[in-house]
Amino acid sequence: MKKINYSQVDFDTMVIHASQKPDPSTGALSTPIFQTSTFVFDNVEQGAARFAKEEAGYVYSRGGNPTTAQLEEKMAVIEGGQACVAAASGMGAIGSTLVSLLKSGDHIICGDTIYGGTSVLMHQGLPEMGIEVSFVDTTDLDKVRAAIKSTTKIIYFETPTNPTMKVTDIKGCADIAHEHNLLLVVDNTFAPPPIQYPLKLGADICIHSVTKYINGHGDVIGGVVVGPQDIIDKIRGLGITKVCGTPPSPFNSWLVLRGLKTLGMRVRTHCENALELANFLENHEYVAKVFYPGLASHPQHKICKNQMNGLFGGMLSFELKEGINGKSAFEAGKILLNNLAICSIAVSLGDADTLIEHPASMTHASVDTEERISVGITDGLIRVSVGLENAKDIIEDLKQGFKEL
Question: Is residue 187 classed as helix, strand or coil in its secondary structure?
Fold first, then answer.
């Protein structure tokens, strides 16, 4: 068969066919699950050659597995990178990347609004290793420039952020990073292709928690890192394989490969539903503010239009007003969620089901109140991962929930 030129086909075609190779021994179209820990060599010389990396092939599934290799190849094609390495979780991908590329005495600039697990790594893990971390609002490029030191090695951020939906200008940050010979690392979990392409916008490394949209079915934990071949080789050889020991299971890699085939159509529906819900919420009497990149009211809407390809994502947050029928925003948030039927009270995101959470009483309950509010996570903030249900049904569910306030 001829090879497909992925630059000449639509995203939906590419995401199905990229890296897909019928099994040579059986002709199976679906990638086999190579559920094995170790691989047998034909002879001692072959084993020696593979350990010395003089011959391609597999040795031990912690360092590489055929099922996982197809996932890695597909993700590299999707994101437009030279190479990819998969991990057992999003945090495995993030942690393996940073411990591979930083050493004691180095400095990293980190976005001031990040996922909770990443926050622990940045606030506790890295400083305990002698790595300095500065937290910066990366939506302000002047603040990013001002934070650079002689020891700075990496600029790291998520865009959009969780749960406040702030959007950073990836190209703007990439230009700053490269002026100072720094690496730009972007967590692209909230806005996967075909929404946003950090590498094409100048980022050096793109990270995903594939637990979310990439897999899309709420049944896998996993992560990937995409970037230049030499950097990915280092992360694989040191972080994934040795320091953190975080390869994915072959079965999880297979599940992600299966989920990826519908990525384009899933993401577009998530985005369409989220925009419809955002418009409804922005006009509701109990809602003080809606945070969604697709709304003209979003402070970085112009940047969003340029770098999110008109899709804007499936995540949104909204803030309840204080004093609704005499209730505090904190109490109103809990009452609203407890009176929903279609929207499931749960963390995570990117599932087919609509997931909703109240950060102040759930994911950020342990965060100091002043610190939480300072980054925009107020008592009445509600985060929604908009699912694939009919948008009108999601809206009706929230309408009946509002009636209980």
Answer: strand
